[in-house]
Amino acid sequence: MWEYTDEVKDHFLNPRNVGEIEDADGVGEVGSMACGDALRLMLKVDENQRIADVKFQTFGCASAIASSSALTELVKGMTLEEAEKITNDNIAEYLGGLPKEKIHCSVMGQDALKQAILNYRGVREAPAAEGNVVCECFGVTDKQIEDVVKAHDLKTIEDVTDYIKAGGGCGNCHENIQAIIDTVHKREAQPAAAGKKLTNVEKIKRIEETLEREVKPALKKDGGSIELIDVEGDTVYVKLIGTCMNCATSDVTLKHFVEAKLQEFVTPELVVKEVKQ
Amino acid sequence: MTVIYMDNNATTRVADAVLDEMMPYFTEFYGNPSSMHSFGGQVGQKISAARGKIAELIGASPEEIIFTGSGTESDNTAIMAALKAHPNKKHIITSRVEHPAIKNLFEHLAKTGYRVTWVPVDRHGMLDLDYLYAHLSDDTAVVSLMWANNETGVIFPIEEIADRLRSRGIVFHTDAVQAVGKIPVDVGRTGVDMLSLSGHKLYAPKGVATLYVKKGTRFAPFLIGGHQERGRRGGTENTPGIIGLGKAAELAGEHLQDDMARVKSLRDKLESAILENIPNVLLNGDKDRRLPNTLSVSFEYVEGEAILLMLDQLGICASSGSACTSGSLEPSHVLRAMGVPFTAAHGSIRLSLSVYNTDEEVDFVIDNLPAVIDRLRHMSPFWKRAACQTQ
Q1: Hey, which residues 88-147 in chain B have their CB within 8 Å of chain A?
Q2: Which of A15, A58, A61 sits opposite B305 (nearest CB)?
């Protein structure tokens, strides 16, 4: 059983502002039946651009209903400008916190509010999410993942799933999500690393350490491994072993995992090439 | 508030008679059954008696019974023993709707070089036998199929499959954790090689289970330690648990027919009332070939966790195949494998009854469940639209 705060339980069992506003000025709809939760948020805005009334309809679990209820209580009476600044963290705080696996419920509230305000301002349809879909199960793009990783300094696939559900379905996108996380953090770390020029000995030593510490344990889980063959300048020659050797996605593993790790922990210039024999 | 417990496929209450049988073995007769002295020896005799009762319940011989710590341990032991016995065979078969004790083990084995065939089920949760038989090969080491599904209660034709496998040299294991104690199970008449059962599903305590291994089946121990269980499962026996399981088996053997007839009538009453009184509800699982105590239903346009928590407020304990009750974000793999549509899969609940449930409790659920569903549906953005479409 999830550990819900008393506020979550109260807002779930006694939700505020449930229902419809027939002549709403702004409507935001997010989520879907397939995703397992959805929220329809309706706003009535007065002449001072203040939210005079707000109602919601939610299909979802206790924390989705509680988050929706909390959101309506938070924004009622706010100007649109003030409401625009509401984040999922505000919703979660209002409820005294949410289990980390349920953070996406509060994100759904933030998204619905954003959509409703856009709708009020005459944007007929919310702009489609930018980027390429990475998580097919929940229709999440690489841009959305990148944004949430940056905004909340997320470190793991599990963190991303908790926030925007990506990766919470079949799991086929895990490698790509990890690559995005690594790219974001590598980019942030690069300025600090810039300017350091490694000697060849230092470089090879660090490559070996990174392969041992970061790469081999992950490959071992899938029944494979990797061997360092040679280093010429910034080109690292490696050989894949075991199940990795015949894996159909070995190119992806080398590019988005091995190379990304070496760039992160050794130097950003490194390029990985596979030696087949 | 009175608790109405209808989550008996998760675990059952320990029967009073079972507890009475166990208690002296915590306090008075605490000797180690492996000891040479008579103080321990009398405990060993009691374990032997329990072994006999369990064997009798499932039509086995006592020496074919190995005590373990859980259904999961029994399942893992069976599969790993079968694979060790056939080191050159790299193909294994199971179904898409197994309990995680098998599902996750097979997924793990798939990563270590085994080729897994996942046999699909139809909309009613029934196994595709043609698919199963078409995928048997000389390389198949083991077939593992549950006797009855924990979520829907659907019963697989284990006897028929065992007949088909008998001459193929393939080890056939069945996870009968949900079946034993609810329907007649007779390994003497059924050609399964190994069978798992667990105490806490049939009114014995948690932490004790059994693996049946047919005489002549090649077996390699999973836990290697002392000489307990004739070297097939090392470790000092969970003596009170085993004695409790023995008593539970004895009770099940004596009362199964009568108890399950009564439980089934309660389940059927509950099922009829739900299907009649609540619109947009789907029954999950084959209506006839199903455990007598299990009812899995899906309510469209509402979410399972929300239903469970509202029922919890009323003292009703049920469970859900909804994603939000687990760490996953996808609804139960069983319902997805059955092709239950998303409109319903997220709103599924399971009510599993026991001999302790009463007519009054069933009436209470019948009286209160419609209001819970109605309340959540009126909160759902999909409900009004669905209602409009059906008008």
Answers
A1: 111-113
A2: A61
Global ipTM: 0.87
| Spatial CA neighbour of B232 closest among B260, B208, B251, B213 | B213
The structure tokens 């590019």 sit at A255
Half-sphere exposure of A28 (CA within 13 A, CB side): 25
Of A218, A223, A255, give the one whose Cα is nearest residue A238.
A255
pTM: 0.81
B255: Cβ contacts below 8 Å, ≥ 6 apart? B355
Q: Produce one character per residue of B306-321: b if its CB has 16 or more CB atoms within 10 Å, e if not.
A: bbbbbbeebebbbbbb
Task: List chain B residues with CB under 8 Å of A38.
Answer: 381-382
Catalytic residues of B: 324
Residue found under tokens 């605490």: B30
Residue A141: per-residue pLDDT: 84
The count of residues in chain B is 391
Average pLDDT over residues B117-126: 97
Cα of A1 to nearest chain B Cα, Å: 7
How many Cβ atoms are within 10 Å of A23's Cβ, its own excluded? 7
Per residue in B206-256, pLDDT (tens digit) is: 999 999 999 999 888 888 888 899 889 999 999 999 999 999 999 999 999
B328 vs A2, A61, A168: nearest CB = A168
